[in-house]
Design goal:
The complex is a heterodimer of chains A (226) and B (254). With 226 residues, chain A is mainly α. By secondary structure, chain B is of the alpha/beta class. The radius of gyration of chain B is 18 Å and the shape is globular. Classes of the chains: A mainly alpha (226), B alpha/beta (254). At the A-B interface, helix 6 and helix 7 of A face helix 2, strand 6, helix 3 and helix 5 of B.
């Protein structure tokens, strides 16, 4: 078992890379979807609501297969960069299909977090801002959003942790992240059980410090203004 | 000189008619107190003046500019008038709210500088200087670096008043500015408002402070069931009310 430590290390690196990309893209997209849901244009609201409901109402595994096989079926293929392949130790296009799916999925949840956070800010706040002559955009940017962000930080942090854990599902399309590597070790050693414990420990080592870090940022934001 | 005139101003929220045709004139330099039972439409009237509510009937003229009603406003679900014209309109009217609505994530100085700086009216340095002068005026210059959560209600409301003044408004609207305050803090806020009136600021004040309305107002509007039921000088309205509803209301609150 001990000689497979490099497997786990490479797997964990790829998991973190996946999760990082998914969280980054998912948050940006989720923010945009939230704005669309709160917009005055009925078409934008409808599209955003449909996006959220469909992505939340279908299994991540199904979404992954649809992106992975579906994109190929319609002729969309992420380019293969030999350099990226070498750095990752896995196929870049497969990796991107996995990261994209996680991002699209996470965006639906992030959108709901942002929307709820923005709507939870007291209406008097935006009225006060508007009464000073600030427009809609500036009111959102300087008055509503900073207050919303503080309120949603715990939920957002939780979503980041969820993405790290759920990224294990992309092992099913052959992306060599932590779970995939653990499976490889199981096959090589003919031990069905212990490699999974190691994988679980590795996931925990990634999520636990993140939770702690987020709790700390949260405390700092709170003490800064109250 | 006339500054604001409403003609047949109406506002419905779905089936509820909050304003049923208000005709009112606010002259430059006037201090108009708006009194009346709760639900009479006082606050809605005030919020229509700076377009935080879109009127569903009638029109508002402000310094020659006219806003006509949008009948769809009844279904807009609490949406305020939007767009650059409405923003420019509101920039010239200061508003003070019952619940202060200071921005809790900014210092007092940040609250005072936000609008003048972001709207390009003042440089950050000039806005800061102005903010310190305004704070000195209400005796709170030592609170510049404090956050709203560290202030008392009376202090918050005084800050909210100077925050509105920081945009150099031509008229100040007060929506029950002392109703959320502990009794011992009402005086400090009313003092600031008296000073403002003495400087010639045009003010429209929705209030339950009858004594203040009587002393400080140049004219009083009594609103009832979405209409201006009676208006006159404080002496007339408080001393010799003509309408039965006015007498009934005053008997209850005085």
């Amino acid at each position: 078992m001990a000689k497979y430590w490099l497997f786990y290390l490479v797997g964990a690196k790829n998991t973190l890379l996946l999760a990082f990309l998914a969280v980054l893209a998912g948050s940006l997209l989720g923010f945009l979807v939230a704005l669309a849901r709160l917009s005055r244009a009925p078409a934008a609201r409808l599209a955003a609501t449909a996006y959220v409901e469909v992505l939340r109402g279908t299994p991540l595994l199904v979404q992954l297969f649809i992106v992975y096989y579906g994109l190929q079926a319609v002729g969309v293929r992420f380019p293969d960069f030999p350099l990226a392949d070498r750095l990752l130790g896995i196929g870049f296009s497969d990796f991107m299909a996995g990261a994209l799916t996680l991002a699209l999925n996470s965006a639906a949840y992030v959108a709901e977090i942002f929307r709820a956070g923005i709507q939870a800010v007291d209406r008097g706040q935006s009225e006060a801002s508007r009464s000073l002559g600030l427009g809609r955009g500036m009111t959102m940017r300087y008055v509503v959003f900073p207050q919303a962000l503080r309120n949603i930080l715990p939920a957002l942090g939780n979503e980041f942790v969820v993405v790290i854990k759920e990224s294990s599902i992309v092992s099913t399309i052959g992306v060599a992240e932590l779970m995939y590597k653990a499976d490889t070790v199981r096959g090589n050693t003919f031990r069905p059980f212990e490699p999974l414990l190691v994988a679980a420990a590795c996931y925990f080592l990634m999520t636990f410090p993140l939770s702690k870090l987020l709790a700390r940022i949260e405390r700092r934001m709170r003490s800064g203004t109250h | 000189m006339e500054l604001i005139r409403t003609v047949g101003l109406r506002k419905s929220f779905g089936p509820v008619q909050a304003l049923r045709g208000v005709d009112a004139v606010i002259g430059k330099g006037e201090v108009v107190a708006v009194i009346g039972p709760s639900g009479s439409g006082k606050s809605t009237f005030l919020r229509c003046l700076n377009l935080l509510e879109v009127p569903t009937g009638g029109s508002i003229a402000f310094d020659g500019e006219i806003v006509r009603a949008d009948p769809r406003g009844a279904h807009a679900g609490g949406a305020l008038a939007d767009g650059p014209a409405a923003d420019a309109w509101r920039r010239r009217m200061g508003m003070v709210f019952q619940h202060f609505n200071l921005f809790p994530h900014m210092t007092v100085l940040g609250n005072l500088c936000l609008a003048p700086v972001k709207l390009g009216r003042l440089t950050p340095e000039a806005a800061r200087d102005q903010a310190m002068r305004l704070l000195a005026r209400v005796g709170l210059e030592d609170k510049a670096a404090s956050y709203p959560a560290q202030l008392s209600g009376g202090q918050k409301q005084r800050i909210a008043i100077v925050r509105a003044l920081a945009m150099g408004p031509e008229v100040m609207l007060f929506d029950e500015p002392t109703s959320a305050l502990d009794p011992e803090m009402v005086g400090e806020v009313l003092d600031v408002m008296r000073d403002l009136a003495a400087e010639g600021m045009t003010m429209v004040i929705v209030t339950h402070e009858m004594r203040f309305a009587r002393q400080a107002a140049s004219r009083v509007l009594f609103m009832d069931q979405g209409l201006v039921a009676e208006e006159g000088s404080p002496e007339e309205l408080f001393g010799a009310p003509r309408g039965a509803r006015t007498r009934e209301f005053l008997a209850k609150v005085l």
